[in-house]
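Good morning,

Attaching, inline, the backbone tokens for the sequence recovery test we're adding to the shared suite. The designed sequence is right after.
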């Protein structure tokens, strides 16, 4: 509680205001004309509440060149100063209802904005709600930071991988063994698919080559034989011919000229013996058509075989396959072994060529053909793999290659670290999201319950202040972003709904349905509910700065009653008294100031008054205020001073009856002002002080039901001839002075 201000310097009208003797009390009322300094005091308290020194700096007195200062002392004698570090920290146990509060939290002019709603929502949910909201906002900030970090890493990933794969799919790629080989296989398959025409042509050519070898009749031809005693012919030629290589045609001519009996030689005429006949028989076979035909076939076959080079042949097949990037597996035999086989077969076939009756050993030939057959098997197998019978989905193969390339990249230390960090962000995000949603649910439930409590109180206050409307659809703001929500609407006469965000001029809205007084009543109802439900109200300083300037007299009186007797009406109708640590009210309305003085419990009245000029700038100061003398009717004050002066100075009483009339008027005035609402019926019936005392006794107000006190007041009424105008008893001299003394003593008890 503020005990007293000791100094205000260089702020607004307070140029150098030394007010050390002006003590505050639990209920302090301050009167001041407009522009006198009330708002300056309120701004000082706003700065103290918020720690915002700019509020004071902006209020610097015109022409003031010194340092601005504020000093005040609380009820524990602790001193607070501006400027100071402590001041900058703010002070939470002070609440202020003024134009600033209304403009920031309820409405401004004719408009209730989303910011008003948001601020009001923040105030209603209070410290605990703000703590939850702060936690939500903090979690959201952390989530935003994580999202930004994740977005940056995603952008980095997409920059590298050109958005060809997502981080999620990349992370799931399994590790592939021999990935390079598999990629090469797929690339080869694609290349093979793209070269099918050429590959088919190559295999057709190879099949023709292989067919020429494997389908030849070499073995058949060389297996044929005609038994001829060729050695006899050869022996004869070698023995008798000068040139053994000469053509044998003349022998065939001679054989043809020899008679069928073959008795005599056609050359010499001698008789042919048995040896000669054997030789002729050999000639016959040698020069027969069958022999000659076979010999020609053998010669051609052997000649063809001798020209065939199996090594070159196999190399040709390999070259053809290589032209389409197909490799023929190595033969089981080396080139040298094949060469030797060929030479051996050539030798064997040469023997057949010399002697048509020679039986060829085909063992080496078969080994050589086996090499070719192996090549045929290998090419057949290669053909199955490389000549496709159906269309190949090259696009799918390319995707598979890309996937394998990603898989190869995926399982490296660099990307393992990247994905571990990425997954870590995801995990932290999910945990924080769950925490945020859980906290949001707590806040929603807390806000829902709290709003229900305030909803009831606000509408009760509106009812107390004779408002024609109530609030409706009162609920917390739930969304984190957006400006579409409103936390309340208005309902007039319990049936007509008015949205506060309606802007159409031809429809009911906040602007055209509420008078200025109604708007202030609405703002006061919100503030009063916040105040009355404040768990720390008994620690709070509550400040009102000219809050009721637009109120009519009836609403002012009812408002004063709410402030003089702060209470909460529970759902079951129970009245719960509330205690305010300190109530400070500033006003420029004298009538309102007088009612505050009469209705509040022992209020301390102060007044802001002009204090001259400083370099042409008006100054103000704060002084104590005698409300009775300065604000109660002048006639009563004059009469009261006269009576006190007569009693104190023991002056002779000249007109006792006249003094009794003055005493009666003063008593009636004090009773009416003090107990207006208790005595409304008696006042309307033009009752007297005696009647007032009787009513207060009946309702046990202010100890009037105490017999001694009651009898004292009735005795005073008797002595003042109140309702005893026919009384013949006279009070004179000292007795009359005693009556005046009783009067002065008893009005203090009222």
């Amino acid at each position: 509680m503020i005990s007293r201000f000791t100094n205000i310097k260089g702020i607004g009208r307070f140029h150098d205001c030394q007010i050390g003797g002006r003590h505050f009390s639990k209920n302090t009322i301050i009167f001041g004309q407009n522009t006198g300094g009330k708002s300056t005091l309120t701004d000082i308290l706003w700065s103290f509440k918020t720690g915002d020194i700019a509020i004071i700096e902006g209020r610097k007195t015109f022409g003031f060149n010194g340092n601005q200062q504020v000093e005040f002392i609380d009820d524990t004698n602790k001193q607070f100063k501006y400027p100071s570090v402590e001041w900058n920290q703010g002070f939470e146990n002070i609440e202020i209802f003024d134009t600033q509060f209304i403009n920031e939290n309820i409405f401004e002019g004719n408009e209730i904005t989303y910011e008003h709603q948001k601020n009001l929502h923040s105030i209603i949910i209070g410290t605990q709600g703000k703590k939850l909201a702060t936690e939500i906002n903090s979690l959201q900030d952390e989530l935003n930071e994580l999202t930004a970090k994740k977005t940056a890493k995603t952008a980095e990933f997409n920059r590298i991988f050109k958005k060809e794969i997502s981080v999620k799919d990349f992370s799931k790629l399994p590790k592939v063994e021999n990935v390079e080989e598999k990629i090469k296989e797929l690339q080869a398959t694609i290349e093979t698919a793209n070269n099918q025409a050429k590959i088919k042509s190559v295999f057709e050519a190879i099949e023709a080559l292989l067919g020429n070898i494997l389908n030849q009749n070499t073995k058949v031809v060389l297996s044929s034989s005609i038994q001829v005693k060729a050695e006899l012919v050869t022996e004869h030629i070698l023995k008798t011919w000068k040139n053994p290589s000469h053509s044998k045609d003349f022998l065939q001519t001679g054989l043809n000229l020899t008679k069928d009996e073959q008795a005599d030689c056609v050359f010499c005429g001698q008789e042919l013996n048995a040896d000669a006949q054997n030789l002729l028989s050999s000639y016959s076979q040698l020069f027969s058509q069958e022999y000659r035909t076979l010999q020609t076939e053998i010669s051609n076959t052997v000649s063809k075989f001798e020209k065939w080079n199996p090594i070159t042949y196999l190399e040709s097949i390999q070259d053809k396959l290589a032209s389409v990037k197909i490799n023929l597996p190595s033969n089981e035999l080396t080139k040298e072994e094949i060469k030797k086989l060929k030479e051996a077969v050539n030798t064997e076939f040469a023997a057949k060529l010399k002697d048509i009756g020679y039986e060829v050993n085909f063992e080496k030939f078969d080994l050589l053909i086996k090499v070719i057959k192996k090549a045929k098997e290998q090419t057949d197998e290669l053909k199955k793999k490389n000549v496709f019978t159906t269309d190949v989905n090259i696009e799918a193969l390319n995707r598979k290659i890309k996937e394998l390339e990603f898989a190869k990249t995926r399982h490296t230390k660099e990307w393992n670290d990247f994905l571990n960090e990425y997954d870590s962000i995801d995990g932290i995000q999910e945990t924080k999201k769950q925490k945020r949603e859980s906290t949001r649910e707590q806040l929603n439930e807390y806000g829902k319950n709290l709003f229900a409590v305030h909803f009831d109180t606000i509408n009760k206050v509106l009812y107390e202040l004779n408002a024609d409307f109530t609030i409706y659809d009162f609920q917390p703001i739930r969304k984190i972003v957006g400006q579409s929500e409103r936390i309340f609407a208005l309902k007039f006469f319990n049936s007509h709904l008015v949205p506060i965000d309606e802007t159409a001029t031809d429809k009911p809205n906040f602007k055209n349905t509420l008078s200025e007084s109604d708007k202030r009543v609405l703002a006061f109802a919100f503030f009063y509910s916040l105040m009355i439900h404040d768990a720390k109200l008994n620690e709070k300083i509550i400040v009102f700065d000219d809050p009721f300037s637009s109120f009519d007299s009836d609403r002012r009186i009812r408002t004063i009653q709410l402030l003089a007797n702060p209470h909460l009406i529970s759902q079951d109708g129970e009245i719960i008294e509330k205690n305010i640590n300190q109530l400070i009210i500033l006003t420029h309305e004298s009538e309102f100031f007088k009612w505050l003085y009469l209705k509040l419990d022992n209020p301390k009245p102060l007044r802001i008054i002009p204090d001259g000029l400083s370099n042409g700038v008006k100054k103000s100061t704060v002084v104590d205020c005698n409300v009775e003398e300065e604000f109660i009717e002048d006639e009563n004050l004059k009469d009261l001073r006269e009576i006190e002066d007569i009693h104190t100075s023991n002056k002779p009483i000249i007109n006792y009856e006249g003094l009794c009339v003055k005493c009666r008027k003063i008593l009636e005035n004090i009773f009416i002002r003090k107990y207006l609402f208790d005595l409304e019926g008696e006042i309307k019936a033009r009752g007297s002080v005696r009647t007032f005392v009787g009513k207060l006794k009946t309702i046990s107000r202010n100890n009037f039901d105490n017999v001694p006190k009651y009898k004292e007041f009735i005795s005073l009424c008797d002595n003042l001839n109140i309702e005893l105008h026919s009384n013949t008893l006279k009070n004179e001299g000292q007795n009359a002075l005693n009556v005046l003394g009783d009067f002065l003593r008893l009005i203090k008890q009222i």
